[in-house]
Specification:
Chain A is of the alpha+beta class and 661 residues long. Chain A is built from 20 helices and ten strands. Among the domains of chain A are: 164 residues, Four Helix Bundle (Hemerythrin (Met), subunit A) (Up-down Bundle), CATH 1.20.120; 63 residues, no CATH class; 157 residues, no CATH class. Chain A starts with a helix and ends in a 7-residue tail after the last helix. In chain B, β3 and β4 form a beta hairpin. Classes of the chains: A alpha+beta (661), B alpha+beta (152). Chains A and B meet through α12, β1, α13, β2 and β7 of A and α1, β1 and α3 of B. β1 of chain A pairs antiparallel with β1 of chain B.
Chain lengths: 661, 152
């Protein structure tokens, strides 16, 4: 009988051939106007998905059944691991994560093939061909340098296990979401390259690109939020964002994707910013590729750097240069042929979206410099430096601040020519409410940092501004409530989605400001029975006990949490030692309320039978992830808009004059 | 405004923002980056007292002292020289004697080092890349794991 792993291996190699076919045939077909060749891309994309899905399923099967004849399973799994982590172990290593990468790429490709019936055949063929070329590059990378199906004979009895800090539910699903975001941007890239080849960008093009970019942006948002949530409670450092190069690698595409979903609106509504939008599409995916390179090549020291293998690094670098260099050259050659579109005054909706794009891209550039400067300096001069949070606070903060102030205003400016005075008049009550919030924070926080009232006022400004946007659209309190409600249900979903996402941003900003400025940190040595005060809470160390888990042993410390004299909870912080690597990890004791978390970490033994403890009160920290979830929901609402439903728009319908709004 | 003027104002505005941002980036880079040193190049390169740096090396065998309170002190060595580091806080899970460590903090008058951050993201086979390279340059013979640079 042929083993399942061999079937997977075979399917993966077949997929290389199919990717080559998907790349060449529809592309040539589109050039020659050969309908059959163009149609071939559709079936190739679907076949591609089937083959990679078989490979992925075979690898998952090897993990679930602990088939230690597969080297990858030996190196990254262990028979005593819980089932969830056997499955997440598939992508908890370099080879498997690359298979997941191409699987998601194939999923997007097949989605364009299946749901793109309304796309002109030529455009669909070219998009699928570009998708095929990306698939080809990464499949070759897998087969030549990172094959997950390499066998060992004789198979060992037991595997080495998965890095214990990756054995966590949030982290099990963080890579699939993040990859869905990274790879989703490949669609916008493929559309951009196809448009450059065709020499045509119009409103219909923007309507096709927007939902795909939005999907990618939503997945990126939630993927980054999950990673941050994991870092918060698993690493035990009490922080939620460390400006770690790997975090930045996912944040940069997010910033550019955010710019892209905004600039695509301008292309769609006003037929302007076309060249810029094409460039952004290329940049967004280039940053995704660069993120993959940074994370996968081992040039960075981090939990994500699974293995250092110079051959892999240079292969990904080659893919990077080929796609980024190729697409930018094509851009330089073909972009001048794209006709410039509608005119607009600096103060207008378009103008505000240009400022949005400018600030997002410049902030991305600041992150880019801070992330790559140490690598560049070390390569050029051999000098070793680290660029940490202070750099990013100093650069990213001041660049993004004006953008946050502008968000509510932009939504009130008219297309083509706006009136700031009128916008501010409509926003007056939101501004007043935001200032009141700032004043309250100032009064409660007299000796606190000046940023606190300012930051909270900005957060409130974003939330109230979003409400004001919807209120103005439904003429709240100007017409009977029933009429307003009727208007609200009649609003395009994308308008509601925009307001929801902007409000979510406000919630997120409130969380970020609160934890950055008001966190309470206590480091103290405690013997059993002793207590420490953390803000208004008292934490008492009641003692420790041995701990036995499915694949680890260790110690668990118990704590009682009191507010005044009321007992609120018993917290447990664990120190685990994982089999078989013996690697230690720490589990945080967490008490969550809507207004913040009490966070307790048990440290090592110190002198006299005491243990070092680290405790935090993290005010409003959950607003960060809650805000990100609201932003995701805003994206989902937009996506459900009839006009943006994937593949819905027809070019014929919009090919007439672009309607002026 | 004419079409040309509009475009010009847009471009000038954009350039102004980029210029400001570039200034900010340069200022931040000159002000906030920290340099990496090993114990022996600490004296060679003339790091000033109170300057914020990263100090990396191996935790010297038998050098870890606990107390008072939550303070831990330990020797960081590159086998040529050793610097005593004290740190008030909780050490990372992977901190162990005889293994690589990177600390961030300030050099004191008496030649000791007070760290506010201790990083040790490694397993028994791993040594921070910066460190492995520095030690190799100095001709220190490394163990198998460090040569391979295998990370977790």
């Amino acid at each position: 009988m042929i083993s399942v792993a061999e079937v997977g291996h075979f399917a993966l190699i077949l997929a290389v051939g199919v990717a080559l076919y998907q790349f060449i045939v529809p592309l040539v077909g589109a050039q020659r106007g050969d309908v059959a060749a163009m149609r071939a891309g559709i079936s190739a994309a679907i076949l591609q998905l089937v083959l990679i899905a078989i490979a992925f399923a075979a690898l998952t099967h090897a993990y679930v059944t602990s088939d230690f004849s597969v080297l990858n399973v030996v190196e990254n799994s262990h028979s005593a691991k819980p089932l969830l982590y056997k499955i997440s172990g598939v992508w908890g290593n370099h080879e498997g994560s690359m298979v997941l990468w191409v699987l998601i790429l194939a999923l997007y490709g097949a989605a364009v093939a299946l749901f793109g019936q309304n796309l002109p055949l030529e455009l669909r063929a070219r998009v699928l061909a570009i998708q095929g070329s990306i698939g080809l590059a990464f499949l070759l990378f897998i087969v030549m340098t990172s094959n997950p199906f390499i066998r060992v004979d004789p198979p060992p009895i037991e595997g080495n296990g998965l890095n214990p800090i990756l054995q966590d539910p949030a982290l099990a699903f963080h890579p699939p979401f993040l990859y869905a975001g990274y790879v989703g941007l490949s669609i916008a890239f493929a559309f951009a390259v196809a448009a450059l080849i065709e020499g045509r960008v119009d409103a219909a093009w923007a309507r096709w690109v927007r939902p795909w970019t939005l999907v990618a942006w939503m997945f990126l948002t939630i993927g980054i939020a999950m990673g941050s949530w994991w870092a918060y409670y698993e690493l035990g450092w009490g922080g939620w964002w460390f400006w770690d190069p790997v975090e930045n690698a996912s944040f940069m595409p997010w910033l550019v994707a955010t710019a892209l979903i905004h600039s695509a609106i301008v292309v769609e509504k006003r037929n302007a910013l076309k060249i810029w939008t094409v460039l952004l599409s290329i940049l967004a995916f280039s940053l995704s590729l660069m993120g993959t390179f940074l994370v996968r090549s081992g040039v960075l020291t981090s939990v994500h750097a699974f293995a250092v293998d110079p051959e892999r690094g240079s292969f990904i670098l080659m893919i990077l240069c080929l796609f980024i260099g190729g697409s930018l050259s094509l851009f330089a050659w073909r972009a001048p042929q794209l006709k410039a579109g509608g005119l607009f005054a600096p103060v207008s909706r378009e103008g505000s979206l240009v400022v949005n794009n400018l600030l997002l891209c410049v902030s991305c550039l600041a992150v880019f410099v801070g992330t790559l400067y140490p690598l560049a300096l070390e390569t050029l001069t051999g000098e070793k430096i680290s660029v940490g949070a202070p750099y990013f606070d100093l650069t990213f903060g001041p660049i993004i601040l004006p953008l946050l102030l502008l968000v509510p205003v932009g939504a009130f400016l008219a297309w083509k020519r706006g009136d700031i005075g009128l916008a501010m008049k409509r926003l007056a009550w939101a501004l007043v409410l935001a200032l009141i919030v700032g004043a309250i924070v100032f009064a409660l926080n007299v000796r606190g940092p000046w940023l606190a009232p300012v930051g909270m006022a900005i957060a409130a400004w974003l939330v109230f501004g979003a409400i004001a946007d919807l209120a103005a659209k439904v003429a709240l309190f100007k017409v009977p409530l029933a009429t307003s409600w009727h208007r609200l249900t009649g609003l395009p979903r994308s308008a509601i989605g925009t307001a929801v996402a902007h409000a979510g941003l406000g919630v997120l900003v409130a969380g970020v400001i609160a934890i950055s400025l008001w966190r309470i940190e206590v480091i103290v040595a405690l013997k059993p029975g002793e207590s420490a005060a953390v803000g208004k809470y008292t934490v008492t160390f009641t003692g420790e006990a041995p701990l036995v888990g499915p694949n680890y042993t260790g110690k668990v410390g118990s704590f009682t949490l009191k507010e005044a004299d009321r007992e609120l909870a018993t917290l447990r912080s664990e120190k685990r030692n994982f089999k078989p690597s013996g690697m230690p990890t720490t589990e945080v004791g967490l008490y969550q309320t809507w207004h913040g978390d009490v966070y307790v970490v048990m440290g090592d033994e110190t002198t006299g039978g005491a243990r070092a403890m680290r405790m935090y009160y993290n005010p409003f920290v959950n607003f960060i992830w809650f805000g990100a979830t609201i932003m995701f929901a805003g994206g989902l609402l937009s996506l459900s808009d009839r006009r943006y439903r994937v593949g819905a728009p027809k070019r014929a319908a919009t090919a007439q004059a672009v309607p002026a709004e | 405004m004419t079409r040309k003027q509009k475009r010009l104002s847009l471009i000038l505005g954009g350039l102004a923002v980029i210029g400001l941002a570039a200034g900010l980036v340069l200022y931040a880079l000159s002000d906030t980056i920290t340099f990496f040193h090993t114990p022996s190049d600490l004296t060679e390169t003339g790091v000033k007292v109170g300057q914020r740096i990263r100090l990396g090396g191996m935790v010297e065998q038998g050098s870890v002292r606990k107390g008072p309170g939550t303070v831990t002190s330990f020797g960081v060595t590159d086998t040529l020289k050793t610097v005593t580091v004290s740190y008030d806080g909780i050490l990372p899970d992977l901190f162990r004697e005889g293994q690589g460590v990177v600390t961030e903090g300030k050099l004191q008058q008496d030649g000791s080092f007070v760290a506010d951050t201790v990083l040790a993201k490694h397993d028994e086979n791993y040594m921070p890349r910066e460190l492995a390279n520095s030690l190799k340059e100095k001709g220190v013979k490394l163990g198998k794991g460090a040569e391979e640079g295998a990370m977790q």
